[in-house]
Design brief:
134 residues; single chain; two-stranded antiparallel sheet
Amino acid sequence: MDFEIELNNLIEFYNSKQVDKFKSQDEIMRNNFPAKVDVMANALKEAISLYEKKFDADVEEVNLKVRLLEVTEVVSLSYIAKHYFNRTRNWLYQRINGNIVKGKPARFTEEEIQKLQFAINDIGRKLQDFQISM
């Protein structure tokens, strides 16, 4: 029985939320590798930390989508895509919705998030500066 393989199985069961398999694997490992319980604990702490970071990133992405919903009712995403990103509306929607593109979810880069924020602020400034005169 190879410790690294068994440890990877334990972490995989944790990540895939297979509770019964995780408990069984944990028991097997504690019985077969009692001297390495600390290594197991540290590996699980790292796996939990990575899971929390992914969860936090997913929450941020959902929050962005929710905040953008209201903006999309007011501002043309086609305009933002074309004038600020030199891209199509579909490109922008793919990132907002996390669509699968080339086998991976489309996501905004940090630079693109900053550009989107600039676009929204810029449009807001243009609307504030607009005056109707008769």
